[in-house]
Every structure is written in C-alpha cells, then in structure tokens.
Design brief:
about 150 residues, alpha+beta, Immunoglobulin-like, about 40% strand, 9-stranded antiparallel sheet, 9 strands
Length: about 150
C-alpha cells in the first residue's frame, strides 16, 4: 500500500471518527443565570451528563462533578498542568462525585489554559477534557465566576 493510499485511509478513518462523535451529541454547554454558572459536558436536551464545572460568582469556589462514578475514597487530587490540589469528595445524587477547589488556585488557571484536569481518587483517575473548540466557554466560566 502506497503513502497516498495510506493517507487517504487515515483521512477517512479520522472523518468517520469525527462524524461518530458529532452524531453522539456530546458537547460542552455554558449555562448562565439563576445565580449559578455551569459548564456541562452533556448531550443537550437529555439527562446525559459526563461532567460539570460550576460556581456562584463571588464565592471563589469551583465545583467539579464527574458523573457515572461512585466515590472510592474521601479525598481526591485535582491536577492540571504542573498544579494540583487535594479536596474532599462528596457523593452526589446517584453515581457522581464532586470536589471543590478555590477559583484562584493554580489548578484552575492551568485547566483554563490547556482544557484538561484529572481527578484522582482511590486509585481511580477521571480525566475532564475540554477540547480547544470549547476553551472559550471554559475561560468565560472562570471569568464570570471571578466577579
């Protein structure tokens, strides 16, 4: 198989993977109003959630919730870039865990810069990834929360 054929096959596979992701409906949505500001990784107009980042402006606190996970330990380490923070975990309705960190903590700054945060707890690691196409929403969340 020549390089041209391999390149065409690679492009076709990437296009198929991209189309499948778009058809699944998962996206990052920013919700403002009602006091709380939420960035949700969801399928809009459904109850399907993977993660939320939420705050109330002026409270200097960002709550990170991961759905489909049961707490395995009482504490978690949130990490982004070279920064990390230890936070108490709380169980949230059904199968979800939530940890909070100060909005001005370097882990939040690093996540806003690169779009990725890891929540490690009880030997389990959950990655929250906001793709480049949605980073403006993440940065808007941090900006609004800081007011």
């Amino acid at each position: 198989m020549g390089q041209a054929t391999t390149g065409v096959l690679t492009a076709a596979l990437l296009a198929t993977a991209g189309a499948a992701a778009a058809q699944s409906g998962w996206t990052w949505s920013l919700y403002e109003g009602g006091g709380a500001i939420t960035l949700a990784h969801e399928v809009p107009e459904t109850d399907q959630l993977r993660a939320t980042l939420e705050c109330t402006p002026g409270q200097n606190r960002l709550a990170v919730t991961v759905y489909g996970v049961r707490p395995a330990a009482p504490f978690a380490t949130l990490a982004a870039g070279d920064a990390s923070a230890t936070a108490q975990l709380e169980a949230v309705r059904g199968e979800a865990i939530r940890a909070a960190v100060a909005l001005d903590h370097p882990v939040v700054t690093a996540m806003a810069a690169n779009g990725q945060m890891t929540l490690d707890s009880g030997g389990r690691s959950e990655v929250i990834h906001v793709p480049r196409t949605h980073l403006a929403k993440l940065r808007r969340l941090v900006e609004l929360c800081a007011r």
